[in-house]
Design a protein that fits this description.
Blueprint: H1 16-33, E1 38-44, E2 47-55, E3 68-72, E4 77-79, E5 91-105, E6 108-113, E7 119-123, H2 142-157
Antiparallel strand pairs: 1-2, 1-4, 2-5, 3-5, 5-6, 6-7
Length: about 170
């Protein structure tokens, strides 16, 4: 039984966590590229997609060989910081970078499209299709790593024939 437009299939929509990942990806790409990268979420045939693109400045000459998309406007839904642009009222001509679509294929929930809009890769794990690792794993403590490195160096400095200074008693013996 197909769902009506009033009852969308939630499996074909990004979860809140996936939208956060996509927004972080747009922000990371903006920092990496040194220019705003927009991530607009839309829907086609009941399935959501996200497009990543760079706004083309009014003083820039657009690359005619690159795909262009219009992004922004009152009904647009963006994730990430939006590059500081007024996307709620303005529409921008943008150079399309790539996109991710949700599919109903049980083997590939996500399909990544390349810069020409062609299927490039697919996965059931969104993180596998993104250019940055976005896990929230705890970072190692640099102070502990430094201590471990020092301990390894101390151990390596002493041969079996020499006495390890860590084993000698400290201070005067009475």
């Amino acid at each position: 039984m197909k769902n009506s437009k009033d009852d969308p299939d939630l499996t074909l929509r990004f979860t809140e966590q996936e939208l956060i990942m996509l927004g972080k990806t747009a922000d990371g790409l903006s920092a990496y590229m040194g220019k705003p990268v927009l991530a607009e979420v839309g829907m086609d045939d009941g399935a959501e997609w996200v497009i990543f693109a760079i706004p083309i400045g009014t003083d820039e000459t657009p690359d005619e060989s690159a795909m262009h998309v219009q992004m922004g406007g009152p009904d647009a839904h963006f994730v990430g910081n939006k590059g500081g642009l007024d996307l709620d009222t303005e529409v921008y001509d943008c150079q399309y970078l790539w996109a991710i679509q949700i599919t109903d294929d049980p083997e590939a929930r996500f399909v990544r499209l390349d810069d020409q809009g062609e299927e490039f890769d697919f996965s059931n794990d969104l993180g596998e299709l993104l250019p940055f690792e976005l896990t929230d794993e705890a970072l190692p403590d640099p102070d502990l790593e430094m201590l471990e490195d020092l301990d390894e160096e101390d151990d390596a400095d002493w041969s079996d024939e020499e006495e390890d200074p860590m084993q000698r008693p400290k201070g005067p013996l009475h």
